Amino acid sequence: MTSPGVHLREITDDNREAVRALRVRHRQKQFVASVSLSLKQAAKMPDASPWYRAVYRGDEPVGFVMLSWKPPSGPYRGRHFIWRLLIDKRYQGHGIGREVLTLIADLVRADGATELLTSYEPGDGEPWPFYRKFGFEPTGDIDDGEIVLRLPLPPAPSAT
């Protein structure tokens, strides 16, 4: 079942505090940093080309996503990498995470990408089953102890 009206919005002074208040379940905290920490990391690491948005369902902020958008250097130079994906604990299990991945995949495909990367820290309750179900596959690479995943992005079918 899909959630009505899942979309991405820029984080502004009007919604920043509501987005920063979003939280994952207690057992997920080891896998997903807070929105506040994510925004601090983005500010400290401009070379990583951070691109982030609030996830909304209707008019309600329900999550946060941050990518490294084709950074000019580093291991992901010129590629799209999901740096952070957080769905608030109150909204998990409703298909929002899948919808966000679909939105992101469409955005990066429109930017010319043939793949979307992410990584996760292995452990009890890890997000690998979620990513696997969506179509991600391990690349064989490990980055700072995290397993790197790849989602192949075939070209969108042309509307002919």
TrEMBL record:
Pfam families: Acetyltransf_1. It comes from the Bacteria. Keywords: Transferase. This is Diamine N-acetyltransferase. One of its GO terms (molecular function) is acyltransferase activity, transferring groups other than amino-acyl groups. InterPro entries: Acyl_CoA_acyltransferase, GNAT_dom, Sper_AcTfrase_N. Residues 6-154 form the N-acetyltransferase domain. Transmembrane segments: none annotated.
